[in-house]
Specification:
This protein is of the alpha+beta class and 228 residues long. The protein has two domains: 6-72, Outer Surface Protein A, domain 3 (Alpha-Beta Complex), CATH 3.90.930; 94-227, no CATH class. 28% of the residues lie in helices and 23% in strands. The strands form three sheets. A five-stranded mixed β-sheet has the order 7-10-9-8-11, with helices on one face. A three-stranded antiparallel β-sheet has the order 1-6-5, covered by helices on one side. A three-stranded antiparallel β-sheet has the order 2-3-4, with no helix packed on it. It is elongated and about 60 Å long.
Length: 228
């Protein structure tokens, strides 16, 4: 699709996405994530006529045909609750995993074992949104010690090879999240990102600009689409 003319851009229409949808631009493509089932969908070339808001919850549309198509598919609505419209985090510029792993204490080992056991009840076989809920999430988010968060991330990564059923990126994020203290996890975001050609979806935990479950360099090609 060609870029919209200046007159069309000036008249761009701000439309909220359906409550269960999030969007991201990947080059010229629009990618949608359905939070109800964790499924992704792609509209090739649609980003030429649409801009995604920093939160991934709204579209600025410059084409009435595209608006009609998105509306007919139920992707956009007239009104939505956007009270939690926080911008998605920027991609991480550092990684906790570049430093040597620490020597762990007995209490840290116990926390990791408890985190792994908890996953058997709160992760496997559950719907997408239920599987990424924060265990024991606090209402407030007091500042946690960055050193403690990074130390725990390195320790969990070090011991992953010995953890049964360590699974994919979602499992690793869920495991580390449960290994953090309530204050630590309140300062961490679980970020989902996508890229296209070929399509690939991935997720990681992030504290500020530090990736906790990945090295940051491979994440540079992703566009964040959702964060919790």
């Amino acid at each position: 699709m060609p870029a919209p003319p200046a007159s069309a851009v000036a008249a761009m229409m701000d439309r909220p996405l359906a409550p269960a949808l999030r969007a991201a631009s990947c080059g010229r493509d629009l990618v949608f994530l359905n939070l109800a089932d964790g499924a992704y969908d792609l509209m090739a070339g649609a980003a030429d006529l649409a801009q995604v808001s920093p939160s991934g919850r709204r579209l600025e549309l410059a084409d009435t045909d595209l608006e009609a198509e998105l509306r007919s598919e139920g992707r956009i609505v007239d009104r939505a609750d956007l009270s939690d419209d926080r911008p998605l985090p920027d991609l991480p510029r550092r990684s906790a995993l570049t430093e040597p792993p620490p020597a762990w204490s007995g209490s840290e080992w116990s926390r990791l074992v408890a985190a792994w056991a908890d996953l058997g009840f709160t992760y496997r076989g559950r719907p997408f949104l239920a599987s990424i809920q924060r265990p024991g999430r606090t209402v407030e988010a007091p500042t946690a010690s960055p050193g403690a968060i990074l130390r725990r991330a390195r320790g969990v990564h070090q011991h992953l090879p010995w953890i049964p059923m360590q699974g994919d990126c979602m499992f690793r994020c869920a495991l580390l999240l449960r290994a953090l203290t309530p204050t630590e996890r309140a300062n961490v975001r679980w970020v989902f990102g996508v890229k296209t050609w070929p399509f690939y979806a991935h997720c990681w935990l992030q504290y500020d600009d530090v990736a906790l479950t990945d090295h940051h360099e491979p994440l540079a090609g992703f566009s964040p689409i959702y964060a919790v």
